[in-house]
Amino acid sequence: MASSSGPEGPSSLLGSTVRRSFTVGRMNLVIGTGVSLLYGVILSVIPGGSFATVLPLLLPVMGSIGGIGAMLVFTNDRTKGVFEYLIAYGVPPQQIFLNFLGAAFVLLTVVNVTTLFAAVGIRLALGYGVPLVFAESVLAYSLPMSYGATALCTSAGMYWTSLSSPRQGMNSPLGLLPIVGVAPGLVTLLAAEAAGPTLGVYVAIGAVVLVVLLAVILLALESRLMPRERLLSPA
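Given the sequence above, the corresponding structure tokens read:
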């Protein structure tokens, strides 16, 4: 729960939310980081172009899994009435919304940075070198898709949770919601592989543009679709 700064209300919420997201979502973070590292290591020790083409496509999929912890904390806080306390102290819904989005980005960054450092380090240690196309793919696709898909997943999850009574199963971030984050990267991976090296580039770029655009639209509509009443406990 956020720390207090006296009668003026809660201080910055991000640090507390990030810490709790690491704790609550540690299993998702371990799975996302572990699987991403496994593929990163395997692709790093294989000579050839698979390192430069496959790993950038995998990063957004695993990163989105690692970022789910922030949504789990959001659901818990709404159920326990934490947002009622924050709103009573004058914290606007927009700040709460962006706070959890920032926490999801922190978790995602841990997965991507850990994988990239390990994979590139192993590649250099083995003397294979890092192709320029790998850096271009990471900057042009992996990072935008990772943050875009995570923003889309987190935004959709907060709308979804706020419109319903959270419980275990399909109506929870533990149900179908992770698919919202994983699907863009996974579908792009399969489509790019099917399209081949030349057309696959255009498939990846188009997917990034579409996912980022959808995430931006959800963020822009947040103040209209997420009034204070949506953040109150359903109990």
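The chain has one domain: 11-231. Try to locate this feature in the token string yourself.
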